[in-house]
Here is the input.
Amino acid sequence: MEQYEKDAAVNNMEVERKFLMKKDEKKLEKLQLLSRYNVEQGYLNIPIKVRISKKLNLETLISNYSLTIREKEDVSKKIIDVEIELSEDKFDTLKGMIHYVFTTEASKEFILEQGYLYRETEVRIRKKLNLETLKTNYRLTIKGDGDISRKEVEVDLNVDIYNILKSTIPYVFITKDFKKFALENGLILEYSIVNKDKQTEFSYAEIEFLDIEEAGKFIAADYLGKEVTYVQNYKMKNFWINSRVKKVD
Here is the structure.
């Protein structure tokens, strides 16, 4: 039972430690397997613009929150313009990631507040197939700065929007063989083999925690390997840039 797997879409904070765990099935056989997935993921880059907006209706006093993803504007045509509804707490979390002043527009009917995520923000789309239930989940994830702890907002997508966003990414997606194992005290080990059978293949493990204090108390077993929580090159966004954006996959 995955009773301790936090929902980042609700908590809006990710606390995790990462380990460069080598591919060794014998070590994993001793753990209880919870679930298995096939994953593909990619990252949106400039010239994609990501805007968040709050629109207050002055008659009903109801506010609507949204995230808009728009490709670089072209005089001759609009290439992509996707709008996704947000909850108020997700809007507030994303607003906290923006280092620029929000713009405000007012009319007799509405007050519109909006701002853009800066280009270093990590914006990822992911397709995740559960190999047991054969159900597929599509999700957009936005992560702030940090290493062991950082803000995170997740928004579910439908397959059409996922495919539209995927079509804007001119690189081969990262693939993962992804498994979850039960650890003691309700913790969950997430084990991934990235780009399996390719030159860029590597494996790693992540363990998520409720807070920094719990993460600091965790004593890592030897089989987890070298900890790389604070090593920038092992962030998946940086792996994406180094293996795809800076050179041909």
Remarks:
- The two ends are 38 Å apart (CA to CA).
